[in-house]
Amino acid sequence: MTGFNLDFSKAQQGNEIKDGTYEVIINKAVENATKSGAEFIDIDLIVRNDVQQQFQNKHIFPKIWKAKATGKYNEGMIMAIAQALQLEDGKSYNGFDELLADFVLKPVLVRVKTEESNGYKNVNVKSWEKTNTTGPVNHQFKNGDEPSFGPSREPAPTAKEDDLPF
């Protein structure tokens, strides 16, 4: 029988994450809707495992809702996220799905806070900032966490040696 040591500093329950600031990578960013038809941008962030920090590989699921009054997303929020992701200012996209696909695999620094709403605890992203890390992103995706680049939520295709033009 192998020994086992307790280390309560590693204690976690469920998908909880403590309030704080985390280096994350965007795994998915797509438009979605509730069963009642309320539309929102559905984002899946993963706490990076190539940066020394707590809660590595935990998911955070921020949503950006369309305003009921206008039927539009908060443009300022989308621009703030795009700026934090260091996308090119002035870049044009053929459609909204193409913009959201450009979010995927980008590193970003987020500050999260757990807040209660309608009896549920939600982890909300309070701010989006440029990543503090330099160099390449070396996050290793776990099985089932492969990034998605579009509304079909299909994993990114895997390139094989024979597919490469060089």
TrEMBL record:
<protein>
    <submittedName>
        <fullName>Uncharacterized protein</fullName>
    </submittedName>
</protein>
<dbReference type="InterPro" id="IPR007731">
    <property type="entry name" value="DUF669"/>
</dbReference>
<feature type="region of interest" description="Disordered">
    <location>
        <begin position="131"/>
        <end position="166"/>
    </location>
</feature>
<dbReference type="Pfam" id="PF05037">
    <property type="entry name" value="DUF669"/>
</dbReference>
<feature type="compositionally biased region" description="Polar residues">
    <location>
        <begin position="131"/>
        <end position="141"/>
    </location>
</feature>
